[in-house]
Amino acid sequence: MSETMGKIAVNTGYYSMEIQEYPVPQAREDGAVIKIQSFGICGSDQHFVKLPGQHPGGTEGHEFMGEIISLGEKANKTLRVYGGPLSVGDRVVIYPHITCGVCDCCKTYGDGVCGVCDNDYIYGGVFDLDTTKEMNHEARQWPHFKGGFSEYCYLFPGTYVWKVPDDMPGEVAALLDPCAVAMRAVEQVMTPVGGTGEGFSISSRCLVIGAGAISIMTAMILKSMGAKQVIITDFFDEKLALAKEIAHVDEAVNVANMTSEERVQKILELTQGGAHVVINGANHPSTCVEGLQMVRKLGYYVEIGNAMDFGRGIVSQVNIPAVVFERNAHITSVVANTPQCFDRAFEYLKRWRELPFQKLITHRFHRLEDIIPIMKQMGEPGFIKAVCTF
Question: I want to staple 82 with a disulfide (CB 3.0 to 4.6 A). Which of 162, 198, 293, 358 is the partner?
Answer without folding.
Answer: 162
